[in-house]
Structures are given as structure tokens and as C-alpha cells.
Amino acid sequence: MSAALRSNFLRTQIQADLESGSVSTVVTRFPPEPNGYLHIGHAKSITVNFGLADQFGGRCHLRFDDTNPEKESQEFINSIQEDVRWLGYQWDGEVRYASSYFEQFFEWALHLIDASLAYVCDLSAEEARSYRGTLTEPGQDSPYRNRPIEVNRELFMQMRNGDFADGERVLRAKIDMASSNMNLRDPILYRIRHATHHQTGNQWPIYPTYDFAHGQEDAIEGVTHSICTLEFEDHRPLYDWFIEHLPVPHRPRQIEFARLNTSYTITSKRKLKQLVDENIVTGWDDPRMPTIAGLRRRGYPAAAIRHFCEEVGTSRSDGTVDVAMLESAVRDHLNQHAPRAMCVMQPLRLTLTNLAESLVLTVPNHPANPEFGSRELVMGSELYIDQADFREEANKQFKRLVLGKRVRLRGGLVIEGESCEKDADGNVVHVLARCVTSVPGTDPEDGVKPKGVIQWVSADEGLAATIRRYDRLFAVAEPSREEDALAALNAQSLEVIEGAMVEPGLSEAEPEQVFQFEREGYFVADRYDHTAEAPVFNLTIGLRDTWSATHG
Ligand code: ATP
Ligand code: MG
Q1: pLDDT (tens digit, 9 = 90+) per residue, 255-267?
Q2: How far is the CA of 96 from the centre of ligand 1 (A)?
Q3: Using an 8 Å Cβ cutoff, are 241 and 460 in contact?
Q4: Where do the domains of the chain lie, and which CATH numbers do they carry?
Q5: Residue 195 needs a FRET pair 20 to 30 A away by CA distance; which of 65, 94, 390, 393 works?
């Protein structure tokens, strides 16, 4: 993988820190809040943090930034660990939790109180807003700002003991109400919240804010480079202020980079949760979701996601990456790694009128890579071909089966259409053809070669399968810019085909195994629903990018 590493400002910075000796071992962390499933943007953060630790022989922690108990849950904690591992990374040591440092944060809050750098404030949320000022006007000091240290200590202890109701008081840092950086206008350190926490139960009726917790978590863990996204750039002076004013064991450093956004995608956890809660998708791991669990179930290989994250680069300017780039990384990977198989989406009966005996064909599993081996397929006189591959008559453009014309059956004989039967509505329901070769892979002796090759499945041995054809979930390039993103859903994001026919060997497909169904696309055996008796395949991605052609 390292051959493909490009230079970027994070790598350059870390290299410089190692060379100057200011850092000896690189320690990074991936710090999700367990309030949803991870998505493609998190995959970027994971590859950056684990990738840098890897590249520089350092360590990367997985740390749950669990300071908001109401929105968090064990389900999310479990899914996040599973997704990080599936992406191919292993964190250093045990999983870490911000909540296991609550006692230390509390002591550090007392330290700030004792240094007259923090105070308990009784302003209501609304009052605090009006005291805060605006971007153009300075704020005003809270009337509680100059409480004596003892009073602050006493009140903060009472907050911790659960003596006050939610929202009644907060603990704030005493910095500068006139700062041009709003984050320094006496930011909140603790809020009162009588909530049960998934890790600490009912031990704490107060919870630290992100700002007060995050840098201190980094300091406790010895993180050297705390990499986050650009929206935290304005928080960096506050991050540094805490590190400077607290007796922390280590001085981490925050570095920001631009979020990854892909077109046709939303990555707001709140909106993704809405899709799940309103049953617009079947769950966080619905194959149309941009979640890692969704991409996995869709058949996107972890290696392709990692490759994409590396390819898009790491910069300090926000932008949106065309989701076609991700799709193309998936297609390129699967083209090399997916064995081929045959599937007939809309089966049409075909009888070979002059085939006396079944043939056993040896068909390669990959056109370019002999290491994939081959498989045996029995070709009898009763087959299925795709309805789209037959026409009674057609011009030369149509290189499939036509009455009186020739075509090759994949891996097998050349046949010529003879006649067809129709139902009462005039639909062709049965085609009769004769074989014009008797040895697979050869050309007819009369020199009239077939123009094309079509898929087929043995009528006796083939398996009926369910095919879920997935497409992009949103019909517009930037759904997060829509007033109502849910109004921009692609109504055709899922088509279910029952009764497709697949070749018999696919009864052995493992869940999550991806195949190229020739001429159709890449399909994955569904992680949960696929069985040998009732195969279920999800469309991972088509063979070519047809989105712009079909959606104008
Ligand atoms: P929120 O904080 O609103 O719940 P979030 O997407 O920031 O949402 P976190 O769990 O805080 O979720 O994210 C964990 C890490 O992943 C953070 O370091 C965050 O900066 C990073 N991250 C989140 N979204 C992206 C993205 N689109 N691109 C790159 N990194 C991201
Ligand atoms: Mg966040």
C-alpha cells in the first residue's frame, strides 16, 4: 500500500515533528461519538488516523467520545468497533472511553476553579445567549463571573451531587467575553444532565462539553497529533488554553483537515437516523446507506474504500468529491478480484433442438487471471437465456439471438435461432434453436461466425434467485443543500427481481462474496438473507457508470 502514498500536509507535519525530535512516537486517535453508525466520511478519518500511525510506526487509539449519554448507545459502540475492524484496522490496546476519565476531568475543573479560571454561572440559556454578544459585538460579563472561589467550589460540588435540576447552572471557563473568537467567551465546561450513561450509569448528573473533554482526553492518552475536521479550527485556541492552564501529563496538538463529502450522499448522522427511524431504508446497514455497514452490505470491498480515501487526498479546503470516484474505485477493485458467473435476470426458455446429449463445459472464473481457476457447467438441451437477449428480428446492431441468426452461448456452442412460441398476449415465452457447432469454443465449419455471446443458465440445474438492484439513494447531487433532503430521494433506488436464474455453483456462494454477473454488473451475496436454497444477491455496482446517461 505504501507505494501509493502521496505526500500531504499531515504527513509533512508529522515527518517534521519526528525529525525535530519534538515527537518521538506518533500517537493518533479515532474519536467517534457513539451516536450513530460510521459513514464514508468517518472512513476518511479512520484511514487518516490509523494510516498515519501505521506509516510512522506509531499507535492509533479507538476512543469513544461519550459525553452525551442521551444520544449514545451500546448498539453504536458495537457497530463502530466492527466497522473499524472490517475496514482493516486494529486500534492499540483496549477500546478507550472518554467517560473513564470523568473523575480526572472533574478534578481539573476544580483546578480551574481554584485558579479563579472557572465559575458557576446561573444565567438561563436564553440570558447567556444575550450576554454572549455577536460576531461584531463583544459579549458582557456574566453577573456570576466574580463569585468567590469557595462559592464556586461549593456550587460545583452541589452540581456534582445532583442538587440542581437540568439546565439550572453551568460551569464556565473565565477567559474573555470580548474575544473576537466566540469560543473564548467564557465557554461552558459542564452541564447538568440527570441522564443514565451507558458506561457510568447514574454516577454523574453533570457532563463535560466536547471542548472541555476532547483535548484533555488526548493529553491523558499521550496523543501527539489530534487530527480533526476544519470546523474545529476556531476551537483550537480553546483547546490550547486548557492544555496550558491544566496540569496535564502531556501536550497534544490539534491539526485540522477538510471533511470528505461525496455527491449524492448525506453524512449528517441526524438525517441518516431519520432515514432509519422513518423506515425509508431498512436500517443503518441498508445497502443504499453511505454507512460503512451499508457499503459493506452493498458489496463494496474494504480495500476499495481505503483506496478511495487515499486517492481523494487530504487537504485544508472543503469540497465535494464526485461519488462516481468511489464507485469507480469499487469497480476497478472488483474487476480484478470478483470471479465471473452467469445470471439471467428475466429468464426465457430456450430449447436446443438438435443437442443429443448434455455437454460438460469448463469455463474460466476470470477472463484475465488463470489463478481464479475454472468451473464445470452442464449444458443440456433446456436452458434459460435473458429475454433481452432475444428478438424475432433485428438489425445488425443487435448482436444477440435472432431467428435465423447465430450467437455463441458463453463458454459453449454456437446456436442459430429457429422459431419461437408466444403466449396469448404475444410475448415470446419459448425459443427453439439448433446448435451449429458440436465442440465448445469452436467456430461453425461453414464459416458463418456468430456476432455476439450471450449468458445462459441450465434449466435443470439453475437456481432461482432474488436480485436486488440498488441505485443511488438521492436523485440530486447535493441532497444536504435541499431544504428537505427527503424530498430528493431517488424513487428508483431499489428494484427487486424475483425468479432470476443463476448458475448452480452459486449455491455455494458465501454471504458477502461478490461476483461479476457477466454483462450485468457486480453482485454480492447478501450478508444476512442469502442462503444456498434461496440465493439473494445485491447489485454492488454496474459495469460502467451509467448514472449521467440515464438521469440526464
Ligand atoms: P457529530 O459530532 O455531529 O455527531 P461527526 O460526524 O463529527 O458528527 P464524530 O463521531 O464526532 O461524528 O466523528 C468522529 C471523527 O470522524 C471526528 O474526528 C470527525 O472529525 C471525523 N469525521 C466525521 N465526519 C467526517 C467527514 N465527513 N470527513 C472526515 N472526517 C470526518
Ligand atoms: Mg463530531
Answers
A1: 999 999 999 999 9
A2: 17
A3: no
A4: 3-262 (3.40.50.620), 269-337+465-551 (2.40.240.10), 342-461 (2.40.240.10)
A5: 94
